[in-house]
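sorry for the late reply, my laptop died twice this morning and i had to redo everyting from scratch. anyway the thing you sent over, i finally got around to it. pasting the sequence first so we're on the same page, its 68 residues, then the predicted structure underneath. double check i copied it right bc i was rushing
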Amino acid sequence: MQHILELVSPKYILEALRIFPLIIVVVLLAPAWLSWVFLPEGRQKRVIDLVKQLIEWTKATRDERPNP
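ok and here's the structure:
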């Protein structure tokens, strides 16, 4: 058991914590994806815009990381 814990680096734990909010948002958007075909065109456009903003946010957080 101790050998496994030695393999887990704090670097990997911090990376997992960094993407955790994104995973929560994706899970919360699941009902929107399930009802996609029933949404009017205007709402579909809003969901697409939201996804584009999430993509930009994840790109921005990736760019802010210091390079080792």
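The mean pLDDT is 78.
thats about all i looked at so far, will dig more tmrw
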